[in-house]
Queue: 2 jobs
Job 1
Amino acid sequence: MEITLSSLLAGIVIMAAPLVLAALGETLTEKAGVVNLSLDGTILLAAMTGFLVASKFQSLTLGFLVASKFQSLTLGFLAAALTGSGVAALLATIGVWLGQSQVAVGFALTFLCRDLAYFLGNPYARQKGPQLATLPIPGLSEIPFLGKVLFTHSAIVYVSFLAIPCCYYFFYHSRLGLIVRSVGENPEGCWARGINPISVQMLATIAGGALIGLAGAAFSLAVKPGWGHPQGCEGIGWIALALVIFGSWNPIRVVMGAYFFGLLQVLGIYFQDSFTSIPPQIFQVAPFPLMIFTLVLIHLSRNTKNRTIARWMRLFSGKPPKWIGRTYKQS
Amino acid sequence: MNVKRFTNFSITQATTNGFLIGALALGTVSLLLVLLGISPAAIGYALINGSLSSWLKFSHVLTIWTPLLLCGCGLLFTFRAGLWNIGIEGQVVLGAIGATFLLRQEYSTLPPWALISLAMFCSFVGGALWGAFAGVLKNRGGVNEIFGGLGLNFVAQGFILWLILGPWKRAGIASMSGTDLFTRELWMFTPHGWRVAPAALIIGFVVFLLTGLLLSATRFGLQIKAVGKNPLAAPLFGIRPDMTGLCAMAIGGGFAGLAGGLQVICVYHRLIPSISSGYGYLALLVVMLANYKILPVPFICLFFACLAAGSIQLPIVLQIDSSLSGVIQGACVLSALLVHGLRKRKKGAA
């Protein structure tokens, strides 16, 4: 098989698309000071509902109205986003509003959603379903090298492109983003300024959940089309969670981490033939030691006395939201 | 008088909570099943039939119960110390690797019982080291035990895959089905008609008693509790929160490692990639459902083990995916979190 640089890069862009969406959703959640640990299960459940709804509506004829492929796929993505929001709403209700440990709720939800997805999706496993077609953008896709890398993909990949500047703008150039960030840093101060931190946290969690749900549908309707046990997207949620830390809660760095992981995955596929001694699963676990390493770096850069080292390390590290994972209690 | 009334009250409340949680969880799952056109009664019958109808089936339940109980005991230590030991899954894996490492050595002079005991010791050490590693990362590296533990779980998974496909591969061919089987003498003794090794049950009982004793009747247990309740006040009494937390992580990891060792020596008799069977994560759910208390842990472990064993038959008997057991377990834990949260809110409002 001939490997060209452009097809390699195009593969990375496709592989990373769901990861970008999920990691940005989790960044939004964590910026508001909430940890949504249910990522892995949510992605699976959303992948299942997205696939189910899309394939049901494909064969459904409402009187003389025949649902087009486009409509059924849109409904699939919508259903997946709603699933993600629903799970996140449950997490927010118990973890934020009722003040239970967010980690505990998220952890229980991960496993509940995963098993629910396998259980409910069992009758539809390994069935043919609709799939997003590639949609080359006219004009842009004819650019010699970049066109093939960036503009000959399915719609969800373009959505993942659009999500990046949107998130950046939201966090750093909009009033709402400022509110979300300040709730994550200092909810008591927000309360004093007339902002209800609990509502903001719940809304941010639900919005982040929608992005995470989209990531699920991106798998079952585009990147790894179909549903089964296993689906093939297991473990991605944990990786997205690791990427948020690896990117130290900065959306741009988080996304760079997602593309880096896409590179690892694509290299894993290409190297499978030439380096049979390295099992492909090794590439799957690579982000985790990197995540731990980053966290240690963050810690060291804060405590070191050597100024040059501190300056260099600051390039890689950032601060987590101060209130992350803690429960805000109105007094 | 007051004290007595207080304790009576809390026992009644615990019972009411238990009923509420059970009713909420089972009610929700039953409703879901009815909506899907499946009879909840048929499911209940199949689950009980698959787990409790004969000694052979129940002894299979016990093979799940033992590692689950060991992991649960380990988690009680870390939760008491205020630590969320999500890395327990990796500690189980490292325990299994430790046991396999010892059993692969050629000691022709040692009798099998000594080798098996040594292997169990190695599994404890393996799990304890992995747990302590997460603890050191937290103390020295500023890595929160949740993210560190999670990362180490995946590192452990990569490590076991590398061992199975690399240095410890089967003679001739590396395969995902695991390493070579151990010779028959190195299997833990299991009587005819049993699935579970009696020695494994004894280890489970002893560890549970030891956990109860250490946590509720010793100075060390009190220290752990003090650190968990208030890490800022503990140093005033000469307790070092970091060292106490590290000890709790090591002991918790060690018990989880024992579970991994049992999986190797009693159940699979070799190392397989999914050696932990997810028992570490399941034990986290158990201890959360027990509301981090010691006494309910073995009973909840038994309930979860029955569900896990009973659901194996579901795809054959009723053409239903066996993940239904996980749905029931998850629903129970989520209901518990909801009920306890509502109680807390009510108490806060009153």
Job 2
Amino acid sequence: MKMWKWSKLSTALLGVALFVSACGGGDNNDPAAGKSSSTNEPGATEKAWTGEIVVWDGPRWSDDKENKYHWIENKKAEFEKLHPGVTIKIVQTPWAEMEDKLNVSIAGGAWPDLVYNVSNRMASIKNIESGIVEPIDEFYTADELADFYPNALKEYEYEGKHYGVPVSTRVHSLLLNLEIFKQKGVEPPVDGKWTYDEFLEKMKQLTGGGVHGFSTYIMPSYYEAWPFLMMDGGRPLSDDLTQYTFDSPEAISGLQKFLDLKFVHEVALPDMGMSNVGDTYQAFAAQDKRLMAVQPWNSWAIASSQKEPYAMDLMVAEYPTGDSGKSISMGDVLGWVMLKQKDEGKKQMAMEFVKFLTTTEEIFITAKNYGVFPSRISSGEQRPFEANPQMERAQQIAENAMMVPRHTNWQKIDEAIQKELQLAVNGTKTAEQALKDARSQVESLLK
Amino acid sequence: MKTEMTAQEAGGRISSPASWLKTWKKIGPAYLFLLPKLLLFGLFTVLPVGWTFLLSFQEYEIFDSHWIGLRNYAEAFRNEIFTGALWNTFRYTIVTVPLSILTALIIASLVFPLGHRSQTFFRASFYLPVVTSTVIVAMVWRWIFNYRFGLLNHVVGIFGMQPVDWLGQTDLALWSLMLMNVLIPPGSGILLYLAAMGSVNPSLFEAARIDGASAFQIWRKITVPLLKPTTFYLLILSMIGAFQVFTEIVMMTGGGPGNATETVVHVIYKTGFRDFEYGMASAQSVILFIIIMFIAVFQYKMLGDEGVERHKKRRNK
């Protein structure tokens, strides 16, 4: 009897809960949600769409009030003025939280309309295949698309369509603290170019007296060390992304040279590969503990290392060349992505806003102030880094940078490889063992 | 007690609408007061748990999920990273839980005889890590373990030894995390033990002293056995907490080097929120739930029943 009562009560509660959840608010991709009112019905095409567009963006450069969202807030105000009845809702989202928040919002079916895509997580093949990301081709002419650097645009391409508007490129390069070079009487590489042997020789000269030549870290989604692995011609996957190739003799040789910096030549910090991002940057840039002369970093660190509190006499150099004779660098492309829309009018207006944010002028402003490389050729031609030769050199590197392979399971593949690299760099496995052990994990993900 | 009896009486008498109404008048207000909490509990606990269970049998797609039976469970057990994480989590639990409880018991036993003011000071001090964000605590420990500037390597250096890469060595990383867990004072455990010690009849200690028992004998033969229900409670709670270890992993090692410090909840998090595999993440969560439940029931059978019953009998006498 008592059980019966409880089961009745539980059923009633579950019913109430379901009712309440069913009455819950709609999501952003629902055309009828909120105060949006589409006027895109037949016969009303002349009238512009009105309603709210939700935009997720992260912090950029500060204004004099330390507001890191001032640029997009100003653009929002200008756009709303041009389009009465349209409201842009900016959701301020720290970059570190962007991916998790987006994933949760997608799982809950309540995604934003526009999002700033970092490291191509949002315009991933997985998301494109799931139908979450909208293609943008119907809004751009071929001439308009031709103004984007091909390698930047390619990052948003899938099966002949483009799934985002590239804004900027980031790249990894070697940052040299020339103050340590001068102290040790070592000449920096001419034009920032060097072979592995020249690099090694200089690292040996720089090491001593509590300072090491080089260091970096190895973590999933971070590619600072990978150009060393690829300098002899090794590549993680085959060109058609169907085969694991990082255990080729070229890749093993590249990893071996990287490991030798630590274990044989002892020119790298003893904890190379195992330290985290923050600690590694501090060890390179903090005024009171500059423990190494050269470090590979993403391009954001160039601007950071040129101003207080980290200001130093800085030089940007290419990764050393190996047996392949080519200097390799890896990069990623940032840009705007529109998520699935049900309302055509809203879709057009959202894209209008994206175009408003990605004009030649706006991409130039973003590049100059935010320290990223423009994705538009016309913005690049305006030379945003004319007064900063180090950024210009990095921009040249960016133009030929390799991008992270765009495989549906790339994040898992990346993790499987990086975890094996960690075991190589902490001495648990040899270069060959580590790269060969990754094969079985990666192969199962490539199927 | 009165409410409980009324409800029991009512349970046997619901036979006619009149008696049902009479009963409702008696117990209805109680349920009404409970209703908001029950609704919230239903919405935010029962419903998600039920949904997780259902999801675990599906291949989740954002626009089209479909039923795949037990395939997620089978794949979870075939996944070496998940089974490795289970083993790491099990080792972490086995080592840290007994040591944390023992530490709490020893500290509480040392604090209990102190005066009121000193006791208050130590209670607050030992409880401080509990109210401090785990993220902050993990950051402090990251500095303690730092290869170049860390406190531990400074101490090691005093003895003329080479610095150790505490979090970077495959064999050492998990042990370092265990060390961190054990060295953080178990504030909640200390408070619970102190409260339990305060409720022990002082005449028992007095009688033991008259009989010539030493302080250690009193502690071992009287204090510790009488604290068994508290120990059992702490054991269950700490075990659940240890099986769910997550923040420390994210902040300190990210599961590395390799998969040396990968734990179950960290794997579930990555499967769900990085890979979008909600069906698989749900299956992994259900597996964790079943393991925790099984161990809790086992502990209850081995320690709980006997301990609680004995304690009750003693109290009744």
